[in-house]
Amino acid sequence: MPSFTSLGVPEALSRSLAERGITDPFPIQVATLPDTLAGKDVLGRGRTGSGKTLAFSLPMVARLTGGRRVARRPRGLVLAPTRELATQIAATLEPLADAAGLRVTTIFGGVSQHRQEVALAAGVDIVVACPGRLEDLMGQKVLTLDAVEITVLDEADHMADLGFLPGVKRILTATPSNGQRLLFSATLDNGVDQLVKRFLDRPTSHSVDSAQSPVAAMTHHLFTVGDAETKRAVVQHLASGMGRRLLFTRTKHQAKKLAKQLTAAGIPAVDLHGNLSQNARERNLEAFSTGGVRVLVATDIAARGIHVDEVELVVHVDPPAEHKAYLHRSGRTARAGSGGDVVTLVLPEETGDVRTLTRLAKIDARPQPVRPGAPALEALVGEVAPLVTPAPPVLEQARTGAPRRGGSGRSARSGGSAGTTSAPAGSGSTRGRRRGGGGGERGAAETHVGSAPAAQAGAGGSRPARSAGGARSGRAGGSGRAASSQGRAPGSQFRVAPSGSGSSGGSGRSGAVEMSMGGGRRRGR
C-alpha cells in the first residue's frame, strides 16, 4: 500500500495527516492523487464513504500553498449540495490549510451573510459553498471568482437531484476556463455527464467500485411487520442498543415525532431535517456524532454527505422511494472499512414496492416477520442501553413590558440560537422563531433538542453547562472512541479532543473551523 508521501503529497500535509492517525490512503485517493496533484482535470466516481473528500482536499491545499491571498477573490472553490456537507468538507480542509498557511471559509444560506462578507473582505484562499448563497453574493459583488485556480464539485449527482445544475453551470462559467476542475460523483446521470463534457478538459476518470454496488461489509435485513403498532414497538426495540443508530423516516414531521417518542420512552434521540434552523441542525448532529445521544432520526437530508463513523445500524423506518436513496441512506454505516447492518421495516402494503427496490439495488435479503423480542431483533440490538428519564420541561417566564427593539437577547439564548428562552436539551421541548439573514430556510424553524444532558446523566456523569457560544459536547463517564481513519473524530463533523481527554467540547484551537454563522466570530466544533 503506497503512502501519502509516495503519492506526491507534500511532507507538511502528510505530517498533518499522521498527527491525526491517518497513514493509509483509501483506494479513491490512491487512484486520483497523482493526477490531481499534477494539475489535471479529474472525474472521480465512488460510493459514499469511499474517501472522496480527502482525495480533493489534499491536492487543493498542496497546489494553492504559497500563493498570494487577495480580498474577495478566493483561489479555491468547493461546491457542495447541502450545508452539512459544506461544513464537513471545511472540517477536513481546515487542518490541512492550517499546516499550509491557508484560510478556509464556508458560504451557505439559512444564516446571516454578514459573517461571510467579513471573512471574504479579510481574504480567504478556499471557499466551500452551496450554490444558492454563492450566487447571491456574486450578484451583490461581494466576491468574484475570476481568480479561482481549482474548482471542485462534490456530490454532483445530488446537486442534480436537487435542481442545482443551472446555478452550478453559471458558477463554473464565472471561473477561469484554464483552471483545474475536479468532479466527484457517485453516478453520471441527471445531467452530470453534460457538466463533464462542457467544463472538464480531457479529464482522467477514476472509479472505485460500481456506482450502485452495495458495500460488502454491510448486512441487509428485511423485517415485515403486521401493523403500525407492531412497527412502532419494533423501532423502539431496534433503537435501544448501546451503539449509534440512524433511523430514516419519509417526512420531517415523522422524524420530529419519532425523536420525541423515543426520548419520552427513555431512549434519548435527536432529529435532523430541513425544518430545523442551522444552529439546531449543527447542535443535534454534534450530539449524535460525539456520543451525547446514540439515536439520530433523519429524513433524506442525512442520506448524503453526513459523515458519522461507527454507525452500527441504519433503520429504514419508512422505505425510500427509489433504490439510489436506499443505497445512500444505507451508506451511513459500514464506513471506513467497518461493518454495519441495515434494516428495512415493511408493512403489508409496502411489500411490492420494497421487492422492486431491493432488486434494483441488487440487495439479496429474504423478508422475515418480526415482533418485539424476536431473536433476529435481539441479535441486532445486543446489549440494551439503560433507559434515561427525560428531564421535565422548563417553563418560560412571562415577559413584562414591551419588547426591546434591536436587543440581542443574549440572556435568553442558548447555543447561539436567536431570541427565545429555550428549555434545556433533553426536555423534549420545541421552539419556533422566524429567522432572518436571507436565503436558505426561513420561517418557523422548530427544533427538538434531543436529550444529550439526560444521556450524560444516564451514563453516570455530569455535563458541562451550555454556553452562549454553542452546545458543548463534553461527556463524563463515556467511553473513548478511536479516531476515524480519515481525519474526523469518531464521526464528528469537526475534529474534537483526542480519545481519553474526557471531553470533546473543549476550547482547543486545533479543533476549530472557521464558519459563516453571522454576528461575529464563531468557531464550529
Q: How can the largest sheet be summarized?
A: 7 strands, parallel
Strand content: 5-15%
Helix content: 25-40%
Mean pLDDT: 78
Please state the CA-atom Rg, rounded to the nearest Å: 22 Å
Assembly type of the chains comes to single chain
Shape: globular
What's the number of extended β-strand segments? 18
Q: Would you write up a description of this structure?
A:
With 525 residues, the chain is of the alpha/beta class. It is 30% helix and 15% strand. The chain contains 16 helices and 18 strands. It has helices at residues 11-19, 27-37, 52-64, 83-100, 114-122, 131-139, 156-161, 165-173, 192-199, 228-238, 252-264, 278-289, 323-330, 351-360, 375-381, 452-458; strands at residues 42-46, 76-79, 104-107, 126-129, 150-154, 180-185, 204-208, 218-224, 244-248, 269-272, 295-298, 311-316, 340-346, 367-369, 434-435, 443-444, 513-514, 523-524. A seven-stranded parallel beta sheet has the order 3-4-2-5-6-1-7, sandwiched between helices. A seven-stranded parallel beta sheet has the order 10-11-9-12-13-8-14, with helices on both faces. A two-stranded antiparallel ribbon has the order 15-16. Helix 12 (278-289) links the parallel strand 10 and strand 11 (295-298). Helix 3 (52-64) packs across helix 4. The longest helix has 18 residues, at 83-100. The two termini are 33 Å apart. The model is unreliable at 210-215, 396-485 and 487-525 (pLDDT under 50).
